[in-house]
Amino acid sequence: MSYEISKSLRLQNCTLSHNLEIDYIVIKFQTMLTVHPDIAKAQTISTDFYLKPEYLELSKENIFANTWQCIGDVDQVKEAGWVTPVNLLENYINEPLLLSSDKQGEIHCLSNVCTHRGNLLVERLCKLNDIRCKYHGRRFQLDGKFTFMPEFKEVEDFPTENDNLTKLPLFQFGKWLFTSLNPKHPAEDFFKEMIDRVGWMPFNDFHFRPELSKEYKVKAHWALYCENYLEGFHIPFVHAGLNSIIDYGNYTTELFKYSSLQLGLAKEGGNEICFDLPPTSPDYGKRVAGYYFWVFPNMMFNFYPWGLSINIVKPTGQSSCNVSFLSYVWNENNLRIGAGANLHQVEMEDEDVVEHVQKGIRSRFYNHGRYSVKMEKGTHHFHRLIAQFLS
Fold first, then answer.
1. Cα–Cα distance between 342 and 335 in angstroms, integer?
2. In this structure, are residues 312 and 299 in contact, taking their beta carbons and an 8 Å threshold?
3. Which end of the chain, N or C, is less surrounded by CB atoms within 10 Å?
4. What is the torsional sign of CA 13, 19, 23, 26?
5. Given this model, what pLDDT does residue 271 score?
6. Pair type for strands 131-132 and 139-140
7. Residue 24: predicted pLDDT
8. Interatomic CA distance for residues 242 and 324, integer angstroms
9. What pLDDT sits at residue 15?
10. β-strands 288-295, 82-88 pairing
11. What are phi and psi of 301, to 5 degrees?
């Protein structure tokens, strides 16, 4: 047998083996991630999802690349010529992107990688007339269109569309900007219900406060953190301070296509700060202390009478994640009172729980749990979406 034929057969066998391995993993996923649509009959997803590295890798493309992620706000590019680099989900996807405002004031989301040799283009927030690669001088307009390259006169069929910077879709809610690496679903499917519910708020008056914002390193799988957020079941047991404010008996969860809302009402007879709701609000007449919106897979939008706390959960490993708390203040007078008064204390209490769960799910004696029909609708919905996107 000739060397060429032998090599070809080896390559074919290797490809066949690889494809069979992928098929096996997909079948295994579909079996493992079958979550019954009836919450009263359903079991939680297998602990393999949290513990096996192949599931974290598959989630990267099937979940995170196919959904929408927050990449900043309009204040980062509020003047023509401003450009801001963004590393999308650092330590996980690590996709270098760029927010830019062109001369007409239109905002763009672009790849931050030069189309010549892959150099990073913009390293920090700055103001530019155009984007110039410091490696070999290739230039682009602020909308990503290629304009000039030195020493390329002899290159045939140049330039082409591939020489422009890749432009990503951009969605704006209020002053916040979102993009998707592979938008299989329109952004409206993720954000519409939140926009309809709280769109009356004066979002232009929300100002980012870096001194009130913080990054937390959590020793737990990203999904465990989200699951904890998605149910108020644990509030009386974990959050004594919050439980003294929130009316646990009237705590509700509303499910949408790719999001959910937990509505936190203040206890009757108390002096807690609540929203001054307009008559057009569907919640008019209620003592709303907090709107807790979750957007699949990893974003929380917590609206309080003082403003908004955006929490973004970023996977960093099999049993670790970073959680960004981004604070936008609307009413300074309400800042340190009510349901959102002590976010750091609530976070510490949540971290303690989820880090213990991370240790517990390693047990050989635990593989599945069951759901509270009344209190864990959000977690069941989350698991169903994980199964949908991975399968």
1. 9
2. yes
3. N
4. positive
5. 72
6. antiparallel
7. 53
8. 21
9. 55
10. unpaired
11. -120, 105
- CA 111 to CA 98: how far, in whole Å? 6
pLDDT along the chain (391 residues), means of 10: 53 57 54 86 96 96 98 96 97 97 96 98 96 98 98 97 98 98 96 97 96 97 98 92 88 97 89 90 96 98 97 98 98 90 94 98 96 96 97 85
Tell me, rounded to whole angstroms, the distance of Cα 215 from its chain centroid: 14
Q: CA angle, corner 140, sides to 137 and 146, nearest 5? A: 100
Please, are residues 148 and 138 in contact by the beta-carbon 8 Å criterion? Answer: yes
Query: Which residues sit opposite 216 in a β-bridge?
Result: 323
How far, in whole angstroms, is CA 40 from its chain's centroid? 29
* pLDDT computed for residue 130 by the predictor: 97
Number of Cβ within 10 Å of residue 24's Cβ equals 10
Distance of CA 24 to the CA centre of its chain: 29
- Is 142 in contact with 102 (CB distance < 8 Å)? yes
Structure tokens at 359: 């240790």
- The pLDDT, as a whole number, for residue 1 is 54
C-alpha of 18 from chain center: 31
This prediction has a pTM of 0.91
Per-residue pLDDT, 283: 96
CB 264, CB 290: distance < 8 Å: yes
Q: How many residues does the chain have?
A: 391
Q: Which helix (H) or strand (E) holds 378?
A: helix 377-390
Residue 157, Ramachandran bin (φ over 0: left; ψ between -120 and 50: alpha; else beta): left
- 9-18 in b/e form (b: 16+ CB < 10 A) is eeeeeeeeee
Residue partners of 243: CB distance under 8 A and separation at least 6: 235, 236
Phi-psi region of 264 (alpha: psi -120 to 50; beta: other; left: phi over 0): beta
As a whole number of angstroms, the distance between CA 10 and CA 17 comes to 10
Structure tokens at 313: 């959960």
Q: Quickly tell me which residue has 């004066």 as its tokens.
A: 202
Distance CA 265, CA 243 (A): 11
Return the structure tokens found at 204: 């232009």
Tokens read off for 367: 């593989």
Q: What ranges make up the beta strands (E) of the chain?
A: 69-73, 82-88, 95-101, 107-111, 126-127, 131-132, 139-140, 146-148, 167-168, 171-173, 176-179, 207-208, 214-218, 252-255, 259-265, 288-295, 299-304, 307-317, 320-329
